[in-house]
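Narrative of activities, Objective 1.

The group set out to show that a structural description can be obtained from nothing but a protein's sequence at a throughput compatible with the screening campaign. Below is one input-output pair from the validation batch, recorded exactly as produced.
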Amino acid sequence: MVIRQPIVAGAFYPFNKREISKFYNSVEGQKLNNGIGCIIPHAGWIYSGKTAVKALKRTEKADTFIIIGPNHNGFGKPISLYEPDSKWLLPNGEIDIDSELTQGILKNCNIIRSDNAAHNREHSIEVELPLMIENYGSDFKIVPLSMWDYKRENLLKVGKILLEVIMKSSKKIGIIASSDFSHYVPYEYAKKVDFKAIDNIMALDYDGFLTTVKENNISICGSGPIYVLLYLAKELKWVPELVEYTSSGEVTGDNSEVVAYCSILFKK
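Output recorded for this entry:
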């Protein structure tokens, strides 16, 4: 069995289990369990962790979470799953890969490959997992999907195969898209362009969302993962709800150059 070790513990989030719990419990909000999926940010917890927790606390526990994150560094195949029969080790627990769902996806979609290299240096999925352990415990599985191929036709193929897997499975499956929003621009500009994209998200307009991102050159790093989630949400008739929009400026006090963060819940 392959065990993926944490690579950004102690940098993006605490390495200490007690500090992880302390952070999670510091975020106000009841566990309403009325969401089946969400968009959450993946920056350092000091900047975006609370925004992520606020959505996770409202997302019900699933047997398996398909968690889709951007591949920032370009290592590995363009659209990659972590290999079956593996687990991810985190400072506060460990999570098994859902081998059955992973193998089912790989069997039915030739543009999705099994490639650990796409995950081993990437933070966008790992950063969410300790918070998910705090929220749900450790008795859930994951299907981590990392991507840097954002071609519209390929994103649609990914969405369709995931929909088929969800519809055929007897398991309860949650979907998480990991993404930050505008990067290194003034806050007012970030808010202006991000909300153009958020309008598309709220309308479940996945094609319009990708067009808006491209035409306005919005630096949403996880636009591919968000597209896939929006496709699923539209097909499954989920209802989006904006939970929070914020930026690094709220922590640093400098709004002249921020990274923006958004959490959006999807309800049945």
